[in-house]
Design brief:
globular, 5-stranded parallel sheet
Length: 688
């Protein structure tokens, strides 16, 4: 196929000449004191010339120039504009550059303006597992570590062999393309093997963490009726052994479509699973003769993964992601936005119930070594994950923003206690990382570090905005929209805005748009979830703004936006200030309906032994007022002992809001600590 196709070089050059991504900073409104806090001064980090020239993004742009004659002159924003002006050419270039294994077909997409509904690579054929198992050598593929000192390793050749054996057993068990296979598993080697064996057969993988309650797992897996259930006998967390078998048995009894339960030994070499119907040991499944791996070709939009919404406001949505869209989007992000290659050792702190696990595992397609960890991030007196950087020579280290905040509050300074010589990229997601968090990372870790705050989600199993290894890093900013993603901020009238807060949207089709929701034959639930507000425009549910540097600031979830006196306030704007108060360990802020208006209520968890008195209340209020506006100052500040969070660690703001209004919170199994909700019910201060 011709890479350039029928594209008009003159038309593109004219379009690039019109791109203006350097809005003068002095055009910011001087009358808005909060807007002034988003102004960047000097970058916290600028990539060296050597790092820029060797980045895969730079090499990719050069290959585009060689084939098209277009010279982006190192300007990422011009390259991004081209990627959305000519999406077919861009995604074809990504396929070729990342060496996607499979047949792309002649057509790349039928209508990039149709969202949803655009068909990408409609004639293509590929297999996800085949792409992740392209290497067959003694290079370390998976390294599994825990809270203590144990360590297990699987090379790429060993991984391929285990996947082939398990896939053979699954074939003999009757698994065929389109069947669902579920994992009630910790983040361990066997989970990756099971997923790859499943997807090699063209079947669909879905997983949740074993710290889910029985009902939480049944609410998810019961909708998709899997044929097989993989479960560990248990897991370790914070030094304690936690049993999984009893809940796995309950799940199997509740879902009659589950034909076999495969038990992985974690707590015992020979777990007793006699009470679980049709159970078989993991080792029995791999007890066959070595066999070549055979992968079933799939269509680009065949189902690959089923992921779930948090479920804190009702039964979780079953979000279906396609084979090709997931693979090519992850390949783009890993290669071009994170610069992951064969020599990298890639870590992300995640459970198997969060999309970051799927994103991490796709790193095998780049030939990297993945570091898997299951346990408390604060084991070894809070040092466990930082220890892993040195012990495993991790080069790409991914964590949640809340982990970084907790690490800062703990007083640990990794640069003083650890070498960190291998570390070159730090990824942060899960919630907005505040300006001060950026600044702390560069003080506490190292100066020469690409800190990439990324934002997307389960909905797209990838990112809308995130890191760019060839751009400077500014405090509080996600560096730019991802290539091929027409991300924008729209105001209430549906108009694109810069330097104003609004809704994060995507205005053009992209390959990792979900195939749809499971059991939504007419697509009506899917349409309502993302396109009801603006037909044909993906409304992501994040509230943010675009900065003069072309970056993004995310101020929180749109459905958690505070609205006192009709003024929209993102929750992250308040969290940012509260995190400056050393006495506060954690917090949640919500809006309470009050006297025909909405008032801001802030709940805080304080350091052990502290009580919220008037002095500390005034200190918190003053910090918020001094750095935002009087509208941001909470009407009530109330001390609690815990904050409810989802299993993936996100603050359950909507659940707290329901509780304080006397409403029921459905599906509390979606929460990691549902008992915390009781702390917010019937508080006298909320009636005053």
């Amino acid at each position: 196929m011709l890479f350039l196709g029928a594209y008009s070089l003159a038309r593109l050059q004219a379009r690039l000449a019109r791109v203006d991504c350097s809005i003068p900073i002095d055009r910011l409104s001087e009358s808005d004191p909060y807007a002034m806090t988003t102004r960047a001064t000097a970058p916290l980090w600028t990539p060296s010339p050597e790092r820029m020239s060797s980045a895969q993004l730079t090499i990719f742009a050069e290959r585009v120039r060689a084939k098209t004659g277009l010279d982006f002159k190192g300007d990422y924003f011009s390259l991004h504009q081209w990627s959305i002006d000519e999406p077919a050419l861009f995604w074809q270039a990504v396929w070729e550059f990342t060496d996607v294994r499979g047949e792309p077909g002649e057509r790349i997409c039928d209508d990039p303006q149709r969202l949803p509904g655009c068909r990408w690579f409609p004639e293509g054929a590929l297999n996800y597992a085949e792409n992740l198992l392209r290497f067959d050598d003694d290079h370390e593929a998976l390294v599994e570590i825990d809270e203590a000192e144990s360590r297990r390793v699987l090379t790429y050749r060993q991984l391929r062999d285990q996947v082939a054996l398990l896939a053979l057993w699954m074939t003999e068990a009757g698994v065929v393309p389109g069947d669902r296979v579920a994992g009630f598993m910790p983040n361990c080697i066997e989970t990756v093997v099971a997923m790859l064996a499943t997807t090699s057969l063209g079947a669909v993988w879905s997983s949740c963490s074993p710290d889910f309650g029985t009902q939480g797992a049944v609410d998810r897996f019961g909708q998709i009726t899997p044929r097989l259930l993989f479960t560990a006998d248990g897991y370790h967390y914070n030094g304690k052994a936690c049993d999984s078998l009893a809940r796995a048995g309950d799940i199997a009894r509740a879902i009659p479509e589950i034909e076999r339960v495969i038990v992985v030994p974690r707590l015992s070499d020979a777990p007793d699973f006699a009470t679980i119907r049709d159970a078989v040991s993991w080792h029995a499944c791999l007890n066959g003769e070595p066999t070549p791996l055979r992968c079933v070709p799939c269509r680009f939009d065949d189902p690959l993964f089923i992921l779930y919404s948090s479920g804190t406001t009702g039964v979780p949505k079953c979000i279906v992601h396609g084979v090709g869209g997931t693979l090519i989007q992850h390949a783009k992000e890993h290669a071009l936005h994170v610069d992951i290659g064969r020599d990298d050792r890639f870590f992300y702190f995640t459970t198997c119930g969060w999309m970051m696990w799927n994103w991490l595992v796709s790193g095998l397609a780049r030939g990297a070594t993945l570091i898997l960890y299951d346990g408390s991030p604060f084991a070894r007196e809070g040092r466990r994950l930082i220890d892993a950087i040195d012990e495993e020579q991790i080069s790409v280290f991914g964590v949640g923003a809340k982990y970084l905040g907790a690490l800062e509050k703990s007083g640990l300074v990794p640069a003083e206690s650890h070498q960190l010589t291998s570390l070159r990229t730090l990824l942060s997601t899960g919630s907005p990382l505040p300006h001060e968090g950026f600044e702390w990372v560069y003080r506490a870790f190292k100066a020469d570090l690409h800190l990439a705050s990324i934002s997307g989600g389960t909905d797209i199993v990838s990112c809308f905005v995130g890191g760019v290894p060839t751009l400077p890093v500014y405090a509080g900013q996600l560096q730019a929209s991802g290539l091929g993603m027409a991300s924008a901020i729209w105001n209430e009238a549906g108009e694109p805005v810069v330097r104003e807060k609004g809704e994060l949207v995507c205005t053009q089709a992209f390959p990792s748009c979900p195939v749809g929701f499971w059991r939504d034959p007419d697509g009506s639930k899917f349409q309502r979830a993302y396109f009801e507000r603006w037909p044909g425009i993906w409304a992501h549910g994040d509230y943010g703004e675009i900065t003069p540097e072309g970056g993004f600031v995310i101020h929180g979830r749109s459905d958690a936006i505070l609205n006192p006196g009709g003024v929209r306030i993102g929750t992250a704007e308040i969290y940012r200030q509260v995190e400056r108060v050393t006495e506060v360990l954690d917090s949640v802020v919500v809006g309470q309906d009050w006297q025909d208006d909405v008032r801001v209520v802030l709940f805080v968890v304080l350091r052990e032994g502290l009580q919220l008195d008037q002095r500390l209340t005034d200190k918190i209020s003053t910090e918020i007022r001094a750095n935002t506006t009087p509208r941001h100052v909470p009407a009530k500040i109330i001390q609690v002992t815990d904050i409810p969070r989802t299993i993936s660690g996100k603050i359950a703001e909507l659940a707290v809001r329901k509780i304080i209004h006397g409403e029921q919170v459905a599906n509390q199994d979606a929460l990691a600590n549902p008992e915390a909700l009781g702390l917010f019910s019937g508080l006298p201060a909320l009636s005053q």
